[in-house]
Amino acid sequence: TTLFRSSAGSLVKYDGTSGPYNVKAWTYDDLQFSSASATTYSLTAALTVNDVLTIDANNTLDIKGYNPTVTTSIANNGTLKLYGGETVSTSPTNGSGSLVQYYGVSGPYTVKNWTYDSIQFSSSSSTAYNLPATLTVNSNLTIDANNTLDATASSYGINIAGNWTNNDTFTPQGGTVTFNASSGTQTLNSGGTGTG
To answer: What is this structure's pTM?
Structure first.
């Protein structure tokens, strides 16, 4: 069986108009998700990108437990969904307006030590997420029902420049949540436990 392999300098662009779609299990050089309207693309196998992976606004890439290997960079300007236990070879640059959404099915998981624009914990059943270091969120943080965010015994802090929504449990230990927007109003909405 011969699988498709893109040549150096080439680009494969997904721009479907409905979806959801499955990503082809190919080896890519540059890969871009660029649908003009809200569209989800899901992995069905480990992903290899030899250069740049780009997720444009309106596009969601769901890695669904698979391990993506990206050599140069990941530009996330849309939504990146993951369970939490995956190995992502390159930390993404999460642009303004982007979202990283964790929705693991077992856990506990360790939150990736990335800089986030917005981050959401949205597992449908009881799941815990542990901080590995101080968490930087340039926009909003959301903890949905059934989800727990734990600063761990290391008492890692959270720096957040947007709004905080907690609909289940935040365990701050001895850590500090710092609301650090340079201007405007930040909202703390806690229907859960432990607002920080």
So the answer is: 0.94
